[in-house]
């Protein structure tokens, strides 16, 4: 990195103040970019859907658009909680299995559309803040869930990117495969990534 670029970044950070958050130098920059771009893309699609259109089917069997949005919301919440747990340095397992549950989805789909849209925005922001608060060491940590599965925190941006882009395509409202970032593998079937119990 050039000295001029590093100096420009230092000046920007000084101007933004101590409360600004930045990714750690060793954070997985490409995967974070994919996840953040996917979140913005999904938000645009979601904002373009009427409340009634949320109840129409997605391309995932058994999932309405509303259920798919709920899944995206609760996955962001879950990943944010996992990251926070890992950053805390706790050694005991995360207190639940690291999967979005059917109960969460069933609760999500009965929420008013406005509440579901707000949940999407809130959980996306929370997850991004958790990522920004991670140190270099945090990105190397792993968390065990209540079922004994190990989740590496450094893989959470890729997990999120695959989910959010797959869900955007599954909404059936104008997303195109050509919009998916080059290099992001979405070859797993959507429902395989959305294993909910």
From TrEMBL:
<dbReference type="InterPro" id="IPR024344">
    <property type="entry name" value="MDMPI_metal-binding"/>
</dbReference>
<feature type="domain" description="Mycothiol-dependent maleylpyruvate isomerase metal-binding">
    <location>
        <begin position="36"/>
        <end position="151"/>
    </location>
</feature>
<dbReference type="GO" id="GO:0016853">
    <property type="term" value="F:isomerase activity"/>
</dbReference>
<dbReference type="Pfam" id="PF11716">
    <property type="entry name" value="MDMPI_N"/>
</dbReference>
<dbReference type="InterPro" id="IPR034660">
    <property type="entry name" value="DinB/YfiT-like"/>
</dbReference>
<keyword id="KW-0413">Isomerase</keyword>
<protein>
    <submittedName>
        <fullName>Maleylpyruvate isomerase N-terminal domain-containing protein</fullName>
    </submittedName>
</protein>
